[in-house]
Amino acid sequence: MGGLGGQREGCFSCGEPGHFARECRAGQERPGRGEDGSAREPYIPDESLEENLYDHGQGSGINFTAYKELEVKVTGLDSPGMIASFGMMGLDERIMSNIYKSKYREPTPVQKYAIPMILGGRDVMGCAQTGSGKTAAFLIPIVQRLLQTGVGGPARRRAAEPEVVIVCPTRELAIQIKDEARKFCNGSELRCVVAYGGADSRQQIQKLEEGCNILVATPGRLHDFVDR
Q1: What's the CA angle centered on 124, arms 123 and 128, to 5 degrees?
Q2: Fewer Cβ neighbours under 10 Å: the N or C end of the chain?
Q3: In whole angstroms, what is the distance from residue 157 CA to residue 11 CA?
Q4: CB-based contact 106:65 (threshold 8 Å)
Q5: pTM for this one?
Q6: In the beta sheet, which residues pair with residue 193?
Q7: Chain Cα centroid distance, residue 197
Q8: Burial (Cβ within 10 Å: 0-12, 13-18, ≥19) of residue 54
C-alpha cells in the first residue's frame, strides 16, 4: 500500500493497517525461528466460548436516557420511521433472546433509526460516537434477514460462500464484530468466521472451508483469500 511520498502504510510484515511490524505475528505463519533460536509456532487466537460471549462487549452503552432529547439528523427520501423499542420490529424470538442476553434494554439512538432502514433494504451511512451501539445497529437486521429468508447452516465446501461480508480496517475490530455477530446468531445454525492478517492463514482457511454465513475480514486478508 502506498502513502504520501511513497511511504508504506500499515504493517510492513503482513500489509494490514492497525498495527506495526514489531507487533505482527504474521511471520509466525512462515518457517523460521524466534530471537532465542526456538521454532516459532503459528499464532492462533482464542475464540470466546458460547457461554462467555455475553460477558464482554458493548451492552446498553452510555447512559442514553440523558440523550433522549438530542436531535438526530436523517436524510433521504421517504426514510422509514424510527423505532422506540426492539419489540416494534417483529424480530425473530432467537434474536430477541440474544438482545436481552446482550444487556440491551432499549435501542440506542443510532439503532432506533438504522435498524428499520436496513430491514427496509435501504443503504445506510451512519455516524455516531464510540460505544453508541453501531455494530448491533447493522448486525441485528442482518441476522434477522438471514433467518427471515430461511438461510440455514453453511455446508462444508472447498470454497466459502458467505451470504454476508463485513469489511473493517483492523484485526481488533474484526474480532469484536465477529463475536458480536456470534451473539445475535446464537441459537441458530448461522455461522460467523473472521479473517485478518497477522494470524495463521491455514487455520482461518480451515474455518472457512467448514462453512460460513457471515464473514468478517480485513481488506488485505480478504483480498488474499479471494485471489487464492
Answers
A1: 170
A2: C
A3: 32
A4: no
A5: 0.73
A6: 215
A7: 15
A8: middle
